[in-house]
Amino acid sequence: MTDALVRFCALLAAALFTGGALYISIVEHPARMRAGIPIAAAEFREMYRLAAPWQAGSAALALLAGVLAVWRGADQAWAWGGLTVGVVIPFTLFVMMPVNKRLLDPAPLAEREARVLLTQWGRLHWIRSGLGALGLGLLLWTAAR
User: Fold this and answer.
1) What ranges make up the beta strands (E) of 5-83?
2) What's residue 33's pLDDT?
3) Which pLDDT band holds residue 90 (cuts at 50, 70, 90)?
4) Which of 10, 76, 107, 141 could be cross-linked to 65 through a Cys-Cys bond (beta carbons 3.0 to 4.6 Å apart)?
């Protein structure tokens, strides 16, 4: 794998993660919430099962490609950009997962609890979106230098 291809993979993975995360934060989650809480809770379960694998995969690829680029001699900013995107993985596992698990539980949620959880999830997801955008911005800045 060439150095340019490794850096391209870091950029592409960061862009895919960030684009998806921003779409969810700006468009999908607000629309879900406007549809009503029972519908939002049901739709969340389906969305999560579809989005989680590619969101995690693209964040992991951005992290690995950024670190690999540095290992192959690129500027350390490539690793920092990849790490900034990749930090969403532990953030999701340790901060968001309790909310995710409750929302994904097949047992019915009271509407009030579902509203609180979905609102909390939306706020936490903005952090993921921001980390992705910051990491992508750092990678783009590094590539342009």
Assistant:
1) none
2) 97
3) very high
4) 10
